[in-house]
Write a structure and sequence with these properties.
The protein is α/β, with parallel strands linked by helices. Helix content is 41%, strand content 13%. The strands form five sheets. It has a five-stranded mixed beta sheet, with helices on both faces. β5, α7 and β6 form a beta-alpha-beta unit.
């Protein structure tokens, strides 16, 4: 069939509130044109993030009721540990309240001044935790990954030659680990091939460096491998997932993405000395080893989510529904990051708004415009998120992240219609300037005014 239907039925609904354009003008002014500061009840379609915003299944809700809330050694912990060990092959599993907690523990232990951490692309919290430790975060994505219009099946791949050059330039002793983000969120939700992961592993082996995955969207990446990589088409997604993790010495995971839960994360490790230190830090800052920062019910829901996310009918629907939005935006005339990502579509705001200088944040202008026109909340991934301190990002993107199992096709059709109307009036979009911001992760709380 041409139509890819949702592989689920809707059992519970939540009302959403309609707002007028006049109301939204006032809401934007009150929030200083930062959509993170807008109340969720004032948003019609919320595409800000796919992190923790998905809808849980009936089996996950049943797990919530089964949750064992014992402080130590709860049955729910062993359910999660067994699931993760079967799927990902790691025996040492540390539960955290979300992915950035895993990042904080990891880089507190391996980071520090004079250290350098290469990645295909660091996402915002990963970069912030690397740099908070005093280390330097370096992005080494392939050149195609910095060009929105270029078609490449694995634009998230790491540039192997650039990795070798970095190691030669700074010295292996300054590099505590090499990290690869799957899928590559900052670069448009683009996947990384199994061949590229193996090539990165070979470089790490050559220089005796550990390889870590930022594996928030591991299942979506594995399905892209199945669809696009030669020799992988007939394989089970579970086997591809296992191949990915078998190449790694560790991983940070936000379960709020491919765990399909509202809270939770993991830190996976193999090195005994790092395990010992991470255990101590987890107990100090998150909780005991068998619950971390979560309740037993969260552990149960996460375990079930990891089982459901590798179902191939779900993954086919997930990636195709994102592609549906990307196809429509392309037909309108919007330049998107090609091809569409797994969890989101990224619009090239620099191309859409050539009248807005990069210093006036064309991505944020588009974010404001989509809310003003139609009550749709999105997020800028460009000079607001990654600029400052003299840094000028290569791309000015706006991410439309689709929550898992939340919106129907008619919701997405509304987004498409709104985007088409906005495209006609794109020259009316106005640049912004920052009037107040923190020194790090400024996109969360910065305040703007329109120029």
């Amino acid at each position: 069939m041409k139509t890819i239907i949702e592989p689920f039925r809707i059992k519970v609904v939540e009302p959403i509130r309609m707002t007028s354009r006049e109301e939204r003008e006032g809401i934007l002014r009150e929030a200083s044109y930062n959509l993170f500061l807008i109340k969720a009840e004032d948003v019609l379609i919320d595409l800000l993030t796919d992190s923790g915003t998905g809808a849980m299944s009936s089996q996950q809700w049943a797990g919530i009721m089964r949750g064992d809330e014992s402080y130590a050694g709860a049955r729910s912990w062993f359910v999660l540990k067994d699931t993760v060990s079967r799927l990902m092959g790691f025996e040492h599993v540390l539960p955290t309240h979300q992915g950035r907690a895993s990042e904080r523990i990891l880089f507190e232990l391996v980071g520090g001044p004079d250290k350098v951490v290469p990645n295909n692309n660091h996402f915002d919290t990963t970069r912030a935790n690397v740099e908070h430790s005093g280390a330097k975060a370096v992005d080494l994505v392939i050149s195609e990954g910095r060009q929105p219009a270029t078609i490449h099946p694995f634009k998230g791949n790491m540039d192997i030659e650039a990795l070798e050059a970095l190691i030669k330039d700074v010295g292996r002793e300054r590099i505590p680990l090499v990290m690869v983000t799957v899928t590559n969120n900052s670069g448009g939700g683009q996947p990384v091939s199994l061949a590229n992961l193996r090539a990165v592993r070979a470089v790490c082996d050559k220089h005796k460096l550990p390889l870590f995955l930022d594996a928030c969207r591991f299942a979506e990446n594995a399905y892209f491998i199945k669809m696009r990589e030669p020799g992988q088409q007939g394989r089970d997604v579970r086997d591809i997932v296992r191949d990915m993790f078998d190449l790694a010495d560790g991983a940070t995971i936000s379960a709020k993405k491919d765990g399909i839960v509202n809270i939770g994360g993991l830190l996976l490790l193999r090195d005994p000395e790092l395990i010992r230190k991470a255990d101590e830090l987890l107990i100090l800052t998150e909780g005991y080893l068998t619950y971390g920062g979560m309740a037993g019910r969260d552990l149960e829901a996460m375990a079930q989510g990891f089982e459901e996310v590798v179902h191939e009918d779900y993954l086919q629907y997930r990636l195709r529904s994102t592609e549906y939005l990307g196809d429509a935006l392309r037909k309108i005339g919007m330049q998107i990051v090609e091809p569409p990502g797994g969890h989101a579509v990224y619009v090239d705001a620099k191309t859409l708004c050539p009248h807005i200088p990069q210093a006036q944040f064309p991505g944020q202008a588009l974010v404001v415009g989509l809310y003003r026109f139609a009550g749709i909340r999105t997020v800028e991934i460009g000079s607001v998120m990654f600029g400052g301190g003299g840094t000028v990002p290569a791309m000015e993107l706006v991410r439309l992240a689709i929550p898992r199992r939340v919106y129907t096709q008619s919701h997405i059709d509304y987004v498409i219609e709104a985007a088409a109307e906005l495209y006609k009036e794109r020259e009316s979009l106005r640049g912004l300037e920052i009037v107040e911001s923190p020194p790090t992760l400024r996109h969360f709380t910065a305040r703007f005014k329109e120029v």
